[in-house]
Amino acid sequence: MYSPTSSTSSSSNMATRQSLIRPDYITPEAWAKLDRTVQLNLSKLNSTFGTSQTYIHDPQTDGPREPNPYLNPRTQTSQNDMIIDPDILEQERLGTTRSQPRRGRGRGQSRVPSGRLIPQQTRSRTPSRSSQHQFSRDRSRSPPSQLPLPSMLNEVEKRFDAQLGMLQEKIYAKFSELEREKENRSDTNTNYRGPSKRRGASTAAKRAARRRTNHKALPLPPDDDTREDLRMSKSELSTSAQVAKRCLQKLARNKFRFICGIPKGTNWPCSAQDREDDGDNDENEDFYTPNFLGDVDNVENQEIFAAVAAQVFNDLQNAEDVPDELTNPDHHWDKSTIFEFAKTSFRGFKEEWKKQPEIDPMKAKRGLEQKRLLRWSSRRKEKVKRLAMMVPAYVEEYGVDPTCLLDEKHMSDEASGPEDEDVETKEQWKSRMGSMMGISTPAALMNVRFLETIKPNWRSDELSDIFLTLHTSWWVSLTAKEREGYNFLRVRDTGRASDVIPLLAPFNFGINQRWLEVQKSRGENSHILMDWNTFQDPDGFGEGVEADALGDEFQPGQ
DNA sequence: GACCATTAGAGTCCCAGAGG
DNA sequence: CCTCTGGGACTCTAATGGTC
User: Fold this and answer.
1) Nearest nucleotide (C1') to the CA of residue A297?
2) Statement to judge: residues A350 and A367 lie in one domain
3) Which of A9, A184, A239, A442 has the fewest C-beta atoms lying within 10 Å of its C-beta?
4) Residue A273: exposure state from Cβ atoms within 10 A (0-12, 13-18, ≥19)
């Protein structure tokens, strides 16, 4: 790239003779005080990264073949490591010139002049222009090119044309999108005076426009603040946007599994190598394998995210395939949204991958424990719902309302397997449960499943009795047919108990005081038990019975 | 970003009833 | 008798939010 200070002359005289260009961010006073060398360097930087000063081409000092660098950016794109700022070409197409700094640019970046080339840092394999300039003296010692100058120029021109062709495709695609946005605007705003549709569009853009006419319009990028971006966190989204986000996330997740060839319920491979060693190479070689040792920034993983984004986005190009949840024009999402969702899925899959015994035995064990806790938790919640249904009957029979006692944390747990499979196998456990229920034949055992009730040691017999009364009342209320629907048999009083302390202190009467004394003497759970024995019994229960009896002459059990 | 607990929702299993 | 459908209970998966 030509710059005012990149004269072909290498003599120091030439350098000092050159007109040094003061960057406009340095005042003339400050400039005058600077060392000549510093001025030269700043001048070079200014010319390389942009200046607002107008440079008039002087054939006498610049040479007859050197173009004015700021007149036509296309003439400067013969380097592989440079790309054209798409906005520039877009402006050229529109015949407009940007006179204001671009929106969203930082202060320093806004100094970049219109029409300059921007370094393509991520792909650059050759030193940037500025660094080449800095080492121009070294370069001058390198052997001269074997190509004569006109051939070199032709070669450069060819490379430029090829690169420009690709860039134009991308730019016109973007431009077409902008056009579509304007079309949409013009539907609601008849005062729109933008370029007429299709005029000047390339063949590619026209083809794209024709394709679009057959497709359902996808959400456009937000042009104002009213559209909800599905990348926002769930709590920040409206209900409909949450539904859309869930839908798109699911599409990304399913596509992720699909292109990796790992259906739901299948373990993720430990590595690509393991997968190859697994046997059917022909089958596996078509699939991506995530690198779970890496994170979301890993190049291999990013490739997968990009593939997921591209394929999901492509799948949604047909109107028939777009789920209703994703057709709301008030929601914004695009390929980058799907890319982000693929990252989210990856994180989940990585956790899943880690929970394999061969990857992390401890985590695998913990994962199984988590699943068990989840099952138990959902059973406790279901139990509270059932007991709550029987409250009216309880009130009718005993005259007191037990609703305040019903909390999921205070329900006893029910296990569908042995406490420790290393001590007792599942079959042994089932056989033991069967014998307690009077079922001993293997054939009969085949058809039943058991839930072993675990006695919570912290709970008093009085509170346990109330829950049992409610539960029995619910069970009796069912028809024989309904009871048959519950194919789990509950086994009580097996001796299995738990010292797990609920994180919600019960009413005083609900506490097993002997257990509490032992726990307090140990001291290890004193921080959890701080507020235990501080909740006075409600009317009709525990000490509340006496108070209630004095007031209402009521006795429990009436 | 890892880890964990919680949550929503989908999947699975079993059964009953309707209809051919 | 077979198939389909719907419902309930239970289980599992994946997302989410909070904390570190």
Assistant:
1) B1
2) no
3) A239
4) exposed
Element (H, E) at A426: helix A426-436
Q: What is the mean pLDDT of the segment spanning A275-294?
A: 67
> CA(A178)–C1'(C18) in Å?
41
Checking each nucleotide's C1' against the CA of A503, the nearest proves to be: B5
- Pair A534, A393 in one domain: yes
Q: Which residue in this structure is represented by tokens 């346990």?
A: A464
pLDDT at A133: 31
Which whole-number Å values give the CA distances from A22 to A41, A46, A47, A50, in the listed order? 10, 8, 10, 11
Of all protein residues, which has its CA closest to the C1' atom of B3?
A351
* A354 CB contact with strand B at below 7 Å: yes
Where a domain ends, among A340, A359, A378?
A: A359
* Angle, helix A239-260 to helix A335-354, in steps of 10 degrees: 60
Nucleotide B2's nearest residue (CA vs C1') is A351
Structurally, how many domains does chain A consist of?
2
Please tell me the distance from the alpha carbon of residue A232 to that of residue A44, in angstroms, as a whole number. Answer: 43
Please give the protein residue whose CA is closest to the C1' of the nucleotide C12.
A371
The gap between A526 CA and B14 C1' (Å) is 46
Q: What is the pLDDT of residues A39-58, one digit of tens each?
A: 655 454 444 333 333 333 33
Straight-line distance from CA A108 to C1' C17, in Å? 38
Residue A363's nearest nucleotide, by CA–C1', is B3
- pLDDT grade for A461, boundaries at 50, 70 and 90: very high
Q: Is the CB of A487 under 7 A from strand B?
A: yes
- Tell which strand C nucleotides have any atom below 7 Å from a protein Cβ: 7-18
- From the CA of A305 to the C1' of B4: give the distance in Å: 26
- C-alpha A427/C-alpha A411 separation (Å) is 27
CA-CA distance, A128 to A80, in Å (whole number)?
Answer: 10
List the A233 CA – C17 C1' distance (angstroms): 10
Q: How far is the CA of A316 from the C1' of B14 (A)?
A: 38
> Does at least one atom of strand B sit less than 7 Å from the CB of A363?
yes
Q: Is the pLDDT of residue A383 over 60?
A: yes
Mean confidence (pLDDT) of chain A: 62
pTM (predicted TM-score): 0.57
Residues A291 and A438 in one domain: no
The number of helices, as runs of H, and strands, as runs of E, in chain A is 22, 8
Residue A127 forms part of a structural domain: no
Phi, psi of A487 (to 5 degrees): -90, 20
Indicate whether A491 pLDDT > 80: yes
pLDDT digits (tens, 9 = 90+) for A143-174: 233 333 334 434 444 453 444 344 444 433 44
Domain-embedded: residue A414: yes
Residue with the larger pLDDT of the pair A260 and A187: A260
Same domain membership, residue A368 and residue A318: no
